[in-house]
Structure formats: structure tokens, C-alpha cells
Amino acid sequence: MNSLYALLFYHPPQRLLAARRGLVLLWWGVLLLGATAAAAQAPVGTPGLRADYYRGYFNDALSFFQQPAAIVNRPVDQLNFPQAETDNFKVGAIAVYNAPGNPDEFSGYFQGQLYVLTPGQYSFYLGSDDAAYLWLDAGPQALASNKGDQQGFREAVGTCTLTAGLHTLRVAYGEHGGSQGLVLQYSGPNLPKQLIPNGVLYSQTGAIQPTLSELELTPDQQRVQVRWNVVAEYNCEAYVVQRSTDGVVFETVQRQACVGGGPHTYEFLDAKPALGQNYYRLEQLRSDRSPVYSPMLAVEVKPTPFVLSLYPVPNNGTFYLQVPPLGPGSMGQLKIVDIAGHLVFQQSLNLEDGQPHFIKPGLAVGIYRLFLSTERGTYSRKLSLDY
Ligand SMILES: [Ca+2]
Ligand SMILES: [Ca+2]
Q1: I need a labelling partner for 223 at 20 to 30 A (CA). Which of 168, 196, 298, 385 fits?
Q2: Tens digits of per-residue pLDDT, 143-185?
């Protein structure tokens, strides 16, 4: 070991430099191989959170959760238990029933990891009846909390800046009496307030490989480029791109099969978003479970002016015609009319992708008028053909 240390860290004679570099490279190689092997061994994350339920109300004492749970490791997709007086948590006989069908006196502990797709500032909205506490990462301080049992369902908000990637998430909750409920929402960069979906929650607290690691929307001339990255796919059948104008009702705009394994990058160009606000989310269809959803992202689609370009000027009797991309199935009808008003040339044009069209009308030198009819209207230009 001493000789190795000397070789690596003492000032070596020139002839030993190459050997030292070789060893350092070898060390890096071993480190990289080790890291790759560790990543490959980590299981693909299981969507949702781990839930443990306890008999009795925790009464704001976190030591309460050190006792054995009555219901152990029950997976939940997300924290979406709206205020109710029925057994929406499905805790059954571990609760006390002061009124038929309305469970009281139980507590829950929910844990796992949250994958943050985009770094930035996030707000977490913790709604509960009765008390609830939310922690992110290792800190002892709760990010948001509703203490006590003297109020009905209410919402606490906590704000923080998060890096992209995995963050541990823990929620303690308890129902004392009356109605009960627990709802966890968040908002962030391009991310309107929404329930935290199962596609960014993982029920394991140890090392995992996430599935969705990036989701990006890029507006492009009244179209939206949807791109997503996955680290590893498990029992994945297809991705369905869904779009909405209100963030509530979604329609399917594309479906593509999963490649399998990973990592992968997927892309889809949506040529027909609405003008104004659009929301997109991914639905991952799986062979082993119900669908897994990404968060919904918002993007604003601004109208692009319709510019009809004819070039070059002057021309030699032929020219190029170009308009903005109008999307799948979009056709245009080009007509050229002479100075006396007679139709002398016409041609159908595919206007889907915005590519220039080479027009060869075969007409005599002179002044004409060009008309282009599209789904966005009919546009007209003076056309001079030169030779
Ligand atoms: Ca209750
Ligand atoms: Ca209550």
C-alpha cells in the first residue's frame, strides 16, 4: 500500500508519470463500473406511497408511530382522500365507529420518494381533517402542517426550492372524530396546482431507478413539442399523450409503444393544440397494474401570424411558396389569375409541415394575382413573373 501511495501521490520521476496516469484511469474505470452496477441493481421504482395505519389518534405526537402498525405497507397511488364521513381510507375494523360507517380514532403514516422533474420553487398544499404533517428530505422541520383537531378540513401551504430528482416524502396523519380527509397537492414551474400523481411518487425509500425523469413542452408555431425521458421502464405497454384545455377533461392525442428497458427519450409533435392555455400529461399503460400518470404541465400556445412568402424576387418564372405549418391533413388550394381575371393555373398544396413548395406555373412574363385558400382563410398576393 505504501508503494502504491507513493506512486499516486508523491512527485514521481518522469518515467513513472505514464504508469500513474494509467492507474488513475484504472481507478476511475473501477469507480464508474461500480456506479453503473449499483444503478443497474437498483429496482425500478414502484408508483405510489407506502401506507401504514394505526389504531387510535396520534394527537400530534410523532412518537405515536413507533408502535406496531395495524395495517402494514399498504400501497396507495397518491394522497387523495377528500373529506368524507365514510371509510374512504378503507381502515375497516382498526377504527372506532361512533356513527355507523364513519371511522374515527385512527392514524396513518405515508412514506416514499417524490421525483421532481424540473428544478425550481414548489408549493405543497396539505389538506387534512384532522391533523397532518408533511416532511420533505431529511430535515426534522415539517414543510407544512395542520395541527390539532379543533377544525374541519383545512389546507396548509409550504414552499421550498427543490433540485430535480428524488426527494424523500413523509406524511403523518390522524383522524380523531367526525369527518376525515387527507389530500396532498403541489405546484411548481409550469406545473399548476394539482394532486401529486403516482407517476412521480415511489413507495420505496431506498435506491431506485425512476421511470419518468423529464417531461418538457416546447411551443413551436402553434404546435407543441412533447418530449419525455425515462430512466427505466417496467411492464410498460404504451405511453399515451393526453391534452386538456381546462386541466380537468383530457383527450388522447397520441399513443406510442414503450421500447422497454431504458433509458429512453420519446417525442411527439402535437400539431393541433388549442390557442391559449393547454395542459398535457402522460398516461403510462402497464401490464401489471392500473395506469400511471405524470403531472400535468401547462403551456401557452400563441397565435403565429399567417405569413405567405413568395421568393425569390425577382424570379425566373418559377418561385417558392411558403406558409407556417398548419398541421396534419391541412391542404391549400393555390390559384393564379391573370390581369383579365381568368384562372390560368391551380394546384393543391400540402400545408402540414411548413416546408416550401416549388411552383412552376409555366406562364408568360407578366403581372398576375395569386390566391391561396387554407383552413385559416384565403390570402392573396400580387405575383410578377419575370424571365
Ligand atoms: Ca371519522
Ligand atoms: Ca375529523
Answers
A1: 196
A2: 999 999 998 999 999 999 999 999 999 999 999 999 999 999 9
